[in-house]
Specification:
Elements: H1 4-8, H2 15-26, E1 32-33, H3 45-55, H4 70-84, E2 94-97, H5 100-111, E3 117-122, H6 127-134, E4 138-143, H7 159-164, E5 165-171, H8 183-196, E6 199-203, H9 225-228, E7 229-234, H10 235-238, E8 247-251, H11 253-264, H12 272-282, H13 286-309, E9 322-326, H14 333-344, E10 346-347, E11 349-350, E12 361-365, H15 370-383
Parallel strand pairs: 1-10, 3-4, 3-5, 5-6, 6-7
Antiparallel strand pairs: 2-8, 7-8, 9-12, 11-12
Bound molecules: pyridoxal-5'-phosphate.
Length: 385
């Protein structure tokens, strides 16, 4: 019944865990869910107020422009200049998206011919390989290993594959591993992409959620990145706006134009009132962002301390709201997640759900308050896992 492309997508892996979760809830156990990467905090009030104001304007009730409001794209340009020290032309180098997932899923349609290869991090955000398959392309997975700090090792990619590849996906600060990248790494990425004529898609969704003085660089902080790269950003994670569906991409004008061409033929842009609220979001004072980040920092510290006291070995992440932890005694990630749910009522995401090289790890999302995290830690200690 379904297309070959759809049939090529992997089956849903977590049905059994979902069943066990429902069973636990039925038994009256208060399940603590660290599974989903969806902020629990509300969108800041000034953004909601701007939406309400803007929704009342009749001129916003029409089809929006395909590229997004120029005023939104100008706000994006200012945001990049101010926060990352790089500048873009709002007319040619910036596009508004219906959430960054939408853009990431659509970009392969602009650049892949049937059977074309993309290089996809494993473990990684599933949309990279799914977008590739839906566009008729062929994902080739590049392992992210602990030994290499969860960065791709370009020397391990054989020359023939590199020459065939059209797109390379990278994502730092990284989901699910919480790894970060520096300028030296981006230099390597851009050189590799220039040598092999590859488009770099950098997913920068967690750029502002960084701790302990660490600040995440844009790929455009290295020379010549503008020749080969596009960077996707999401308002979802920084401003607690996952439900609003707004994001953007910046970068090489021809790459941005390819994505625009696809989108012009598929969707009709983001509700202008949401874009105007997006402008308010991008102008959020740093103090408010600091408050949001410090909430995650406190949660991180409480959970890391609790995990260590429970005998697990785990590293403190410098960014994102995830903790990526090795399973004990080389236990399978699915098995370990099942055990945590069964014996402590705690939901985590098995690493294997992000790719074969995610096996041996689980992911906690820090989207529960400190009180709940403390309760989870108590249960871990009681269960003696
Ligand atoms: C959450 C997330 C996104 C998607 O964000 P939206 O803008 O809400 O679509 C993209 N990439 C990564 C790695 C994410 O974790």
């Amino acid at each position: 019944m379904y297309s070959e492309k759809l049939n090529k997508l992997p089956p849903y892996l977590f049905a059994e865990l979902d069943r066990l979760k429902v069973e636990k809830i039925r038994e009256g156990i208060e399940v603590i869910d660290f599974g989903v990467g969806d902020p629990d905090l509300p969108t800041p009030q000034h953004i909601i107020d701007e939406l309400c104001r803007s929704a009342r304007k009749p001129e916003n009730h029409k089809y929006p422009s395909y590229d997004g409001l120029l005023s939104f794209r100008e706000a994006v340009a200012d945001w990049y200049t101010e926060r990352k020290g790089v500048s873009f032309d709002p007319e040619l180098e910036i596009i508004t998206l219906i959430g960054s997932k939408e853009g990431i899923a659509h970009i392969p349609l602009a650049f892949l011919n049937h059977g074309d290869v993309t290089l996809v991090p494993d473990p990684g955000y599933p949309v990279y390989f799914i977008g590739t398959i839906l566009a008729g392309g062929k994902p080739v997975f590049v392992p992210l290993t602990k030994e290499n700090n969860f960065l791709p090792d370009f020397d391990s990619i054989d020359a023939k594959t590199a020459k065939k590849a059209r797109i390379l996906y990278i994502n730092y600060p990284n989901n699910p591993t919480a790894a970060v990248a520096d300028k030296k790494f981006y230099r390597e990425v851009v050189d590799f992409a220039m040598d092999n004529n590859i488009i770099v898609v950098h997913d920068f969704a967690y750029s502002e959620i960084t701790f302990d003085g660490y600040r995440a660089d844009s790929i455009f902080s290295v020379h010549d990145a503008i020749e080969v790269a596009i960077e996707f950003h999401s308002l979802s994670k920084t401003y607690n706006m996952t439900g609003w569906r707004i994001g953007f991409a910046v970068g090489n004008a021809d790459i941005v134009k390819g994505l625009k061409l696809v989108k012009t033929n598929i969707d009709s842009g983001v509700f202008q009132a949401v874009q105007e609220a997006g402008i308010a979001a991008l102008k959020t004072p740093q103090k408010t962002i600091n408050e949001i980040v410090s909430v995650y920092k406190e949660r991180r510290d409480v959970l890391i301390k609790g995990l260590k006291e429970s005998g697990f070995s785990v590293e403190k992440p410098r960014a994102t709201f995830y903790i990526w932890m090795e399973t004990p005694d080389g236990m399978g990630s699915m098995d370990f997640s099942r055990t945590l749910l069964d014996q402590a009522g705690i939901v985590t995401t098995p690493g294997v759900g992000f790719g074969d090289h995610g096996e041996g790890f689980i992911r906690f999302a820090l989207t529960k308050n400190v009180e709940t995290i403390e309760k989870a830690v108590e249960r871990l200690k009681e269960a003696g896992l």
